[in-house]
Amino acid sequence: MRKKIIMAFLVLFFMISVVSADEAINRRDYLFLNVQISNKINIIPEQANYRVDYVKANFSFFPRNTYRQEITEIRTEPEFSKEGDNYIMEWLKPTEKELSFYINSEIRNYDERIDIRKKVSFPIEDLNIEYEPYLQSTGNIDINDEIEKKAYELSQGSDDLYEVVFNIADYINENVEYNLYYKDYNKKASWVFENKEGVCDEFSTLFIAMCRALKIPARFVSGIAYSNIEEMEGFGNHAWAEVYFPDYGWVPFDITYKQLGYVDTTHITTNHNDDSNVTSVVYSSRGTGFSMIADEMSYDVFIESTGNLIKPMVDLSLSVFDDNVDFGSYNLISVEITNKKSFYIIERVYLNPTEGLSYPNGKEKFVLLEPYASKKIYWVVGVSDSLKSGYTYTFPVEAKTTTNAVGDVRFMVQEDSEHYSLAHINSLVEDKDEKENKPYSENVYLVCNVSDVVVSVNKTVHINCVIENKGDTELKQVKVCMNDESCSYLNINPGEKKPFDFRKTYYSPGIKSLTIKASNNKIIKTQYFSVKVVGNPKIEIKEFVYPSEMEYGEKGEISFNLVPLKNSPARNVKVEIMHDIINEGWVFDSVSETKMFRFMINSNDLKPSNNKFILKVSYEDYEGINYEVSEQFEIELKNLSNSEKIMLWLNWGGYKVYYFFTGLIDKI
């Protein structure tokens, strides 16, 4: 800080700190980056005649194309193949004891957002079943009663999905402490909720768990990002979350970096998953007489070029409650923030610290703004009581946002001017708070039960509710609704309980949400339910491949995929390959996504003539009705010598004798 003394007016003017040049990297409209990821695998011989058939690295940690991230070039050593979303690097019969690999990516990151221009209703009423994995309680993203209760509390009274997600993010920002020296990484969401500390993994895990508790799809994003914190300055491992908004897509929320609804251009997305406990690379090998150890993954990020500073998305206008206060007094700063854009934004607004002022309620706030909307936020500032007597002081207060908007205001401090206590200024804030306040809601209890959480198409769900007025005031014209429809009105006397119920029939599969809301001018109470509606299941056998001919001693492969109909999972699925000698089977509780099968056969286990097989898949729907699909195929043995035929007949006869006696034993 530097001081300027104006002797004629006996004024001390306190200047505000300047943002560092490094911080500007996070505020560019694009970055052109070079990302180099590498590692080394050490082959450790344990026998003199060791043999390495192959070494594989199944790699999921590399930059991906997204709506804001463009991969312009990628080079690898060795060359890679693709398996699903992963890279596979393979060394065949390597002789080196050190195997190294690298992935070099040229990427261009843009300051792009998912522009949500209209309100997305909460709860989400009709969600495709493909998002179900992002609604579940998983290994680290576990959802307990406490998490669910707090999530519902934060959602009360809101039917705007963006607002509900913002409330969750703001709660975590306010209540979970970022601990740079915290070493026990990758804790469960339940642990984070209880202990209120962690790093980026923990912030993201708890945020995702609270979203999922409200049936809001959310997923874990792993990647790399830039930090200007002195202890970890530069690019490093990072994690954040994405929330699915129907009709718009996956919207990022990085609570650690205080970027809600977007991430800056230093964020490099490398993967996204339904949980945080996913390994970045899996190594495998085959051979004898050796072991294998991989080094820790290393990477470097180089900034090749940068764009311009991003333009402000909001306007700031500051005012002060009293422009002349006493030493040791408190004052109130009002900031009106106006969204200049046609879509929702969440802005982080913060005060640059000024020497001689204190901030009893903190120096930063997050503000959710609808398109072109304005809101007022308030800060309490305290003036030091140890200022030098006989001087008049001018204190500047400057507010800034992460999108480079700036506003300021000044007020004077003189002895024997108006003096305001902290309690008085806090009461002003409460009076100015624009949020609707219905305190009588605490006296009202709403309990609802849904008859089924999984139903078939065309089945009816029953919802039975009881509302109780435990206060001393009559509640008139309480509007009770299901999904803002099928509404009725109740009058509830003090101490009275009243039951009410609803019916809902669904005609299409998917994840459906039910909202039960009770409200009038004094209260608002809400309960949410999620119902999974499933259609009639159908499984198809796809990409069925088998050898139609084989020779003696040859091995072959039967492979096929089971492809279920979307939104209609099959239950109690049994897969069988049936033959006079070969019989193989698999059983699954359910199949809701494509499953791949590979089955090896040995020609020595076949008959010397044509071999008829049946591939049968049997399954049930949610109501227990049976279904079946099958394929028949033949495998012929060719070019058999007489001795080979004799061996196969003897083998076949041995199986018949075995089955005969085992059948008798089973009957005893």
Q: Mean pLDDT across all residues, rounded?
A: 87
The first-to-last residue Cα distance is 96 Å
Report the strand count.
Answer: 44
Uncertain parts: 1-22, 663-668
Helix content: 10-25%
User: What's the shape?
Assistant: flat
Number of helices in the DSSP assignment: 6
Structural class comes to mainly beta
Overview of the molecule:
- The chain has 668 residues and is mainly beta.
- The strands form ten sheets. Strands 1, 2, 21, 23, 25, 27 and 28 form a seven-stranded mixed beta sheet that branches. Strands 9, 30, 32, 33, 35 and 36 form a six-stranded mixed beta sheet that branches. Strands 3, 5, 8, 18 and 19 form a five-stranded antiparallel beta sheet that branches.
- Strand 14 and strand 15 form a beta hairpin.
- The radius of gyration is 33 Å and the shape is flat.
